[in-house]
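Incident review: delayed structure delivery

Summary: a single-chain prediction request sat in the queue longer than the usual turnaround. Root cause was a stuck worker, restarted by the on-call engineer. No data loss occurred. The affected request and its eventual output are reproduced below so the record is complete for anyone auditing the incident later.

Affected input:
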Amino acid sequence: LALCCYDGFTDTQTGESFWIPTNDDGVYQRLWTVEKTGKATLHAPIGKMASHEWWSEDGKKIYYVSQSGINCKNIETGEHKTVHICDPWHAHTTKDETLYVYDDVLRDKYPNWYRGCASAVRLFNSTTGKVINIVDRMSENNWTPDNQCNYHIDPHPRFSENGKYIIFTTSNEGGADVALANVVEVLSFEK
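Output delivered after worker restart:
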């Protein structure tokens, strides 16, 4: 079973833009699973959109982010739920699905996202229900809506394969760098 996620693009030859198709209600038609036989199944998101998807470790659940938060759909049982209410761009979970890391825009300062706006990296512990700020404000480095960053600087946080580290990009030193956060040390800040 493959997870296929329809994404938008701009044709570099014609300049024509193609966006993620929506149904009559404006709901993204993005999340598809495709079997070996070619049979495709559309999975409607919670809310109107879905983005930045990934499989659970056991291959039974599709995770994705939306305006409602970090969401999970069990493709065997059909259970569909929001795991954590937040405003994420990207997210990832540990293999045991108890810890979630995500990046988001600081909406109080930036109601409209732009490439290079300040962001945060956070850890959600589903066992305790607590959120820990790993980076509470990533620098904009003088980027503005009129002078956006020319590369994809979003933090894109992920857990390492062994679950011991959170890996993300940062621009706090003026350029793009890779950062590592030790999960045990981050959890020690949980209050």
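Verification: The chain has a mean pLDDT of 88.
Action items: add queue-age alerting; document worker restart procedure.
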